[in-house]
Amino acid sequence: xxxxxxxxxxxxxxxxxxxxxxxxxxxxxxxxxxxxxxxxxxxxxxxxxxxxxxxxxxxxxxxxxxxxxxxxxxxxxxxxxxxxxxxxxxxxxxxxxxxxxxxxxxxxxxxxxxxxxxxxxxxxxxxxxxxxxxxxxxxxxxxxxxxxxxxxxxxxxxxxxxxxxxxxxxxxxxxxxxxxxxxxxxxxxx
Length: 190
Known about the structure:
The protein is α/β, with parallel strands linked by helices. It has helices at residues 16-29, 77-82, 103-106, 116-122, 132-139, 145-154, 161-171, 177-189, and strands at residues 4-11, 33-40, 48-56, 69-74, 87-96, 126-130.
């Protein structure tokens, strides 16, 4: 199998590292060679966080270069727009429509750009934008956006639902298991 490249982008504190761990675990269970690399600036709440997940028959490097990402999974609109140059032609952006103001917006030095999903689509990008935050809250916690996004991403792969749910069972504490399974299914069916 040709190597597939997935970038998970977001803001510190949103759970992108758990999302990449879940994805990596599921792919490893399927027998793929996996490389996961966490690349970030200030990952404390508010800083940009990027994780690369690469899988295939044989993967030699964990890094995804510009124009190589099959998928960009974004926890927030501005983060999706920030990383579009990494998307390959024919790639897809799966994005939560939530907005989180970066420090320049919070301090009043800049304004949050409006219409980002539409601007990305107008630029010819394949954008699947949906309100993952509302679905996470429906599942029982706003912190489950990461699992909602993984559920939505799962629609683009031929892996059984049970395999994804098994990876969730092995990735989250038992007390949060049902909430995360619900969040995953809401994302998958969105």
